[in-house]
Amino acid sequence: MKTAIYPGSFDPVHNGHLDVIARASKLWDRVIVAVALNHEKEGFFTMEERVDLIEKASCHLEGVQVTAFEGLLVDYVKEVEANAVLRGLRAVSDFEYEFQMALMNRSLDETLETVFLMPSQESIYLSSRIVKEVAAFGGDIDRFVPLVVKQAMAQKLKR
Ligand code: ADP
Fold it and tell me: Does the Cβ of 9 fall within 6 Å of ligand 1?
């Protein structure tokens, strides 16, 4: 069984992420969306909330599992016996960081392959940060996130 891991912060998951997950679910038997735990940065959503939102937003896609992970990605990849790390590439600006990460991961484990997928044109400009900014100023985020995420964001912003 071929497994890909799609790591990220997903705070929150948006249509760009979901586009990548949908493409990957056609290419791999199992796609593990892995929410990376970051002790240094307090997020908008908690880890549990992020996992829950991704699960709800991707439940129609075959072979997708969602989990949280901590520590080195290369160790987690071995633990779940994945054969690829999946990343999304939006623009040239993503490339430098992604290139560095992919080569660093390869130097930690030379068998590890990183695969990049491009999203559809409509979601190429999306990022979690921009979605949060638009929502915080009362903008309409309907086209950028699934309904569950929109509702959860509205709930949080009310508090
Ligand atoms: P962000 O907070 O920038 O949305 P994450 O850390 O959650 O990003 O991203 C996880 C992965 O998803 C990264 O590989 C990132 O490049 C990718 N990604 C983020 N937004 C998009 C998008 N709109 N289209 C395709 N890939 C994306």
Answer: yes
